[in-house]
Amino acid sequence: MIARFLALSVLFGAALSAVQALGGEREPAPGSNVESVVGFTRRLSPELAASILDADAAAHRVGAAGVQPDPTVTVQAWDVDRKGVGQVWVGAEQTFRLWGKTDLEKGIASADADMARHRSHAIELDLIARVKVAYAQYNAAHRAVELSKSLQQRVDQLAEILRLRYGASSVNQQELIKAELEAANAAADVARREGEEKSAAARLNALIGRKAQAPLAAPKGFPTLKARMTLVGVQELAKSRNPQLAATHAQVRSATGTKELTDLNYYPDITAGANVVQRRNGDTSGMFLFGFKVPLQYEAKDAEQRAASASLGAAQARNDALSIRLDGEVAEAWFRLEAIRKALKIFEQRQLPPARLSVETAQKGFDAGTTDLPTLLESERRLRAVELELLALRAEEQSKYADLERLAGGSL
């Protein structure tokens, strides 16, 4: 029922968005924060809708498993000649599956439904992680455009100052040419970064389930991430919440049930029935039957049993392998995140302040006529390089944190 509700919610969200696009009251475009893009993704993503419907289909199969076969009703005419029908037999037969076979079938279907549900959750977590990474890249690209435009504006101002100085014959023409070239480079950098922002927006829209050129709101900054975590704590969360690991657990349960069911195939099903016999002279009598299938095809049953044993062993091996790999992947993502955070601190505390001070000092010297243009431009470029590197590190931090959440099975 929950899976059906989620699927209907996804389809309703897509229909609502289509109606609004045709001329209804439009809701704000996503993009201002990560919550908005994640919310749109859960509503619009066809990939997520397909996984939810697959899980819903598996859940419905539970109701069709573990039931007895339908009874058979028969009508037979005997001793048919010129005088008519000598006897009419009306009866019913029912095959009964004993020895706990129906319970095992229901247990297998239930395990398969759990496996489909956990796989759907894994697809959702993987999609949300990719959306968060794409949003971080879109956020960084948007901020990089702002930084490039700021540098362009600053260089344009310097060029204008030099034009005035050149007109007053206080500077030579070479400095003005250098300023003009730097302004052209700054304009080209803005154009390139605007293209990167559009590319990041298209990638994000595709993951959400929207058209590539659908409008996105301007991002308001990177979301705050949890700082206090322990590696052991995240690994424990992954063992208890990771949906892929839970899916392999369900697969082991399904394979175990299948193995037990093949063991019971040596025990035959039985068929019971009764007939009411009405003769031509009006007499009525009864007749009962009882039968069972003789399990003579032992080779086939032995093969089924060996196949089920192999499948069970494979499922257990996959579960063990995933548990080991998951533990290692969590540790790998954790150490990468820690390294990025250390690099961020170094840039924020030891590179950004000196770079800003260098620009301020060079600017004062340039205004006083004691610092030349190349020195000022170099300090400006150095500051922008540090700021862009900080942007790249913050985007990478968001990416590794999203990967850690995916492995841990949800928010940390």
What does this structure look like?
With 412 residues, the protein is α+β, with helices and mostly antiparallel strands. 72% of the residues lie in helices and 10% in strands. The protein has a four-stranded antiparallel β-sheet with strand order 1-2-3-4, with no helix packed on it. Helix 3 runs antiparallel to helix 4 and helix 8 runs antiparallel to helix 9. The longest helix is centred in the last third of the chain and has 71 residues. It is elongated, with a radius of gyration of 36 Å.
Low-confidence stretches: 1-25
By oligomeric state, this entry counts as single chain
How would the global form be characterised?
elongated
- Our measurement of the CA-to-CA distance between the termini, rounded to an integer number of angstroms, reads 27 Å
H and E string: HHHEEHHHHEEHH
Could you give the order of strands across the largest sheet? 1-2-3-4
- Residue-averaged pLDDT: 84
Helix content: over 70%
Largest sheet: 4 strands, antiparallel
Number of helices: 9
Topology, number of strands: 4
CA-atom Rg in angstroms: 36 Å
Give the structural class.
Answer: alpha+beta
Percentage of residues in DSSP E strands: 5-15%
